[in-house]
Fold this sequence. Notes:
The chain is of the alpha/beta class. Helix content is 38%, strand content 24%.
Amino acid sequence: xxxxxxxxxxxxxxxxxxxxxxxxxxxxxxxxxxxxxxxxxxxxxxxxxxxxxxxxxxxxxxxxxxxxxxxxxxxxxxxxxxxxxxxxxxxxxxxxxxxxxxxxxxxxxxxxxxxxxxxxxxxxxxxxxxxxxxxxxxxxxxxxxxxxxxxxxxxxxxxxxxxx
Length: 164
């Protein structure tokens, strides 16, 4: 059984985040029953002005434990941004985007490794076995896939939840 915890943010944000995560697991990884996801909703400043971050907290090879840090300021139900339809969609797509990364990690397509080699020393990012450490963010193949899939997941989630 998958284990999902959510801390921070408002009660509404926590409930929606867990619902989105459950939907994404059902949609992307229906056979996986051993995932442990810790969702942190908090005001955060990440590199490159991103709104969220996903990383494994357990083993390196096909991990099953993850932390999703999501900036809680993306969307609040009572904010002025709530009145615009896009604010809710921003929150849904942000969580869905990070869940695509969870899927990529679990499937073994996305990996991080610490290299001991003098020519490739330090932290390295691999996608399907190829090193993409020094590639611009928007050109990373796993980010391209996540952006494409987040829109598909948004449409399916809204249809599933019968949202406008």
